User: Which sequence fits this backbone?
């Protein structure tokens, strides 16, 4: 790591995508060897997926992903492009499809963790293969782009608090020949060794913090690079990049210098005046009258002790001048790391209108204190600097108008549910900036949600990749309860994505079919364990199956005829032969006859198009009675289902019949029951939150 001693200036990593490949390249080229550019490694998967959906302006993403495929003889880049690239870009009002969240599961593919009461152990968890490939490929692409056409040095920066994707993106960056890795926001002990192992494609493992674990129990995510793309990435040894740790005080600097595993190759000593995340103040948290954490002399690093720790170091936080560099050199540093000034450079990823607004404020003589505030917004719990710009989420009024949402999840924590009677627990992921009800349902405390704001969405907006909000007529699913799975046409629905016409949620014992339309949402709730079903024996019960949720057309009979049908209780009931429903299933063209109780203009569903576009196939043909479900409204639009002891008996219907509308109790909270199913109609679309 001899080259480190010549590095006078490191352009600091600034996530998400503020310090992108363009900025890093520009700095690295300035005085190769002396000035180093750093790309941010945080959220690259999210950024690249969005850029592909913008039509990949300039073609850089596809160029880099092609290079990845060519260099390693794989099809990963192509697969990513096929999944996300939109020629000419998505429609301006269309929402971005999100990249898959980083959700860990036990290795057996289920979601339950057995009790570790007998033998505490380290439980291996896995991350979906597509997520791993996306992280590796985008880590490669960003560094590859930054390194094109010059000999300067390129580093990549990570936040230890975003721990799960780190090793995969780092490996991807190493495949592109990254020269250095910088890790901040947390203690990176163990990561220099991981970096060394990955340079030889050896298996590594990252410890994962899982809350509410049993004593002695731990969790880790193993990663063997040779299992990716059948070992194609692991054919040539890699250059081991330099590893630099960001610390604020001498105690961590000394501990890392004497690491039990492998010490870092250098340290960035970051003062609390630096941009981005900062270490919290020493001692108990005190705030000033603007709510900013108050720092004291205890937070000033002892530079003599740091120098004595023996590792090369760079000073960061207010050193962006010639004077600053001279001070740093005099203190024994090799150089400085600078962030804020580079964030305002033309090459930075920051949205030009924000850059201009900040530069204008500066031209108008705004003071640092008025322009930038240290907040406690970050879900990491670390103080976080926010520029106070009019009309942005930094402002309380703008923020208050925003629905809390967690659809990216980079800063989610993992935890375990309370044990079930058999001792098993499920893993959940939660973020304190997410909707409060969901956070509380995952063993969270309301107190921890206070002040917290969604940095994932906030930072993506900062670089012009913000999600489109307020889509009239669209419904978005937000996963509040772990273990709820959404499927549409047998494909997984990712939390945060908008629902299409037929989505089946499964969680707990319930299956819930969701039929969104422009101005209302219809949910069908199936409870296969209700006592009436168990008692009822003369028809077979099929659990709902998303494969049977098919698009269909409804062809009304020109003449609607009345008919009498004998029910299984020998009751005669009157129905109207209403329409034929045509659909295709397993390549067979099929049709069903639809009946109605009444042909009435007051039918609630008359304003809903969903039944005209889909057919519900034999979802429930052994139902003797419906059980009443109560709707618990939580927060603004969240809801959950609980069953009440009240049972409303309905008669079973014959297999394969579809009943449209009319069986409805308009006065009973706009609820109606059919066939053991409750349909719930909401008057205004917003969020669907699963809490089944
Ligand atoms: C907008 C912005 C985002 C930042 N993001 C990160 C980050 O993701 N990771 C990190 O280690 N440091 C981050 N930083 C800190 C910089 O890398 C650098 O250490 C710091 O800005 C130096 O202090 P200065 O801003 O006074 O020059 C960020 C800084 C800014 C201004």
Assistant:
């Amino acid at each position: 790591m001899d080259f480190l001693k010549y590095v006078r200036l490191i352009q600091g990593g600034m996530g998400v995508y503020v310090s992108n490949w363009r900025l890093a390249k520009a700095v690295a080229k300035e005085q190769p060897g002396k000035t180093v550019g750093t790309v941010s490694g945080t959220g690259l998967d999210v950024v690249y997926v969005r850029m592909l959906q913008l039509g990949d302006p300039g073609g850089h993403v596809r160029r880099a992903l092609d290079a990845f495929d060519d260099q390693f003889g794989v099809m990963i880049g192509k697969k990513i492009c096929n999944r996300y690239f939109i020629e000419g870009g998505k429609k301006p009002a269309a929402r971005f499809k999100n990249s898959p969240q980083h959700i860990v599961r036990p290795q057996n593919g289920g979601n339950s963790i057995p009790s570790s009461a007998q033998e505490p152990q380290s439980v291996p968890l896995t991350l979906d293969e597509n997520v791993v490939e996306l992280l590796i490929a985008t880590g490669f692409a960003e560094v590859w782009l930054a390194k094109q056409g010059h000999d300067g040095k390129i580093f990549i920066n990570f936040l230890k608090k975003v721990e799960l994707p780190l090793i995969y993106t780092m490996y991807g960056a190493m495949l592109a020949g990254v020269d250095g890795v910088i890790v901040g926001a947390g203690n990176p002990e163990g990561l220099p060794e991981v970096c060394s192992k990955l340079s030889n494609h050896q298996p590594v493992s990252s410890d994962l913090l899982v809350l509410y674990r049993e004593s002695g129990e731990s969790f880790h995510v193993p990663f063997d690079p040779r299992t990716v793309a059948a070992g194609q990435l692991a054919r040539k040894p890699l250059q081991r990049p330099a590893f630099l740790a960001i610390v604020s005080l001498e105690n961590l600097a000394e501990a890392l210098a004497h690491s039990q595993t492998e010490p870092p190759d250098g340290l960035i000593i970051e003062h609390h005046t630096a941009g981005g995340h900062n270490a919290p103040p020493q001692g108990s948290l005190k705030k000033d009258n603007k709510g900013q954490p108050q720092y004291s002399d205890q937070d000033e690093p002892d530079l003599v002790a740091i120098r004595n720790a023996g590792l090369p170091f760079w000073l960061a936080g207010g050193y962006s001048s010639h004077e600053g560099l001279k001070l740093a050199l005099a203190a024994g540093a090799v150089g400085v790391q600078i962030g804020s000034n580079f964030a305002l450079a033309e090459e930075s990823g920051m949205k030009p209108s924000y850059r201009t607004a900040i530069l204008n404020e500066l031209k108008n003589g705004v003071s640092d204190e008025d322009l930038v505030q240290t907040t406690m917004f970050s879900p990491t719990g670390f103080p976080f600097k926010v520029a106070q710009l009019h009309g942005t989420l930094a402002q309380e009024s703008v923020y208050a108008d925003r629905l809390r949402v967690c659809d990216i999840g980079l800063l989610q924590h993992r935890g375990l549910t309370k044990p079930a009677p058999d001792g098993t627990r499920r893993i959940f992921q939660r973020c304190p900036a997410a909707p409060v009800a969901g956070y509380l349902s995952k063993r969270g405390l309301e107190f921890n949600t206070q002040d917290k704001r969604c940095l994932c969405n906030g930072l993506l907006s900062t670089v012009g990749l913000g999600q489109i909000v307020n889509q009239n007529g669209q419904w978005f699913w937000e996963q509040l309860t772990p273990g709820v799975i959404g499927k549409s046409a047998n494909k997984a629905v990712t939390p945060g994505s908008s629902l299409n016409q037929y989505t089946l949620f499964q969680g707990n014992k319930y299956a819930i079919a969701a039929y969104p339309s422009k101005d209302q949402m219809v949910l069908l709730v199936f409870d296969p364990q209700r006592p009436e079903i168990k008692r009822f024996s003369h028809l077979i019960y099929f659990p709902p199956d998303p494969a049977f949720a098919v698009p269909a057309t409804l062809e009304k009979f020109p003449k609607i005829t009345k008919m009498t049908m004998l029910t299984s209780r020998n009751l005669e009931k009157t129905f109207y032969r209403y329409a034929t429903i045509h659909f295709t299933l397993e390549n067979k063209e099929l049709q069903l006859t639809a009946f109605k109780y009444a042909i009435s203009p007051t039918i609630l569903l008359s304003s809903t198009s969903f039944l005209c576009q889909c057919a519900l196939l034999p979802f429930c043909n052994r139902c003797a009675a419906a059980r009443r479900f109560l709707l618990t409204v939580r927060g603004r639009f969240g809801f959950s289902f609980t069953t009440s002891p009240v049972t409303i008996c309905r008669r079973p219907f014959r297999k394969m019949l579809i009943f449209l509308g009319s069986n409805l109790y308009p006065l009973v909270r706009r609820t109606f029951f059919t066939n053991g199913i409750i349909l719930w109609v909401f008057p205004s679309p917003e969020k669907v939150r699963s809490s089944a």
Observations:
- DSSP finds 18 helices and 34 strands in the chain.
- Confidence is low (pLDDT under 50) at residues 600-692.
- The first strand starts at residue 9 and ends at 11.
- The pocket of flavin mononucleotide is lined by residues 12-15, 18, 40, 42, 157, 159, 184, 246, 270, 273-276, 316-318, 320, 337-340, 343 (CB under 6 Å).
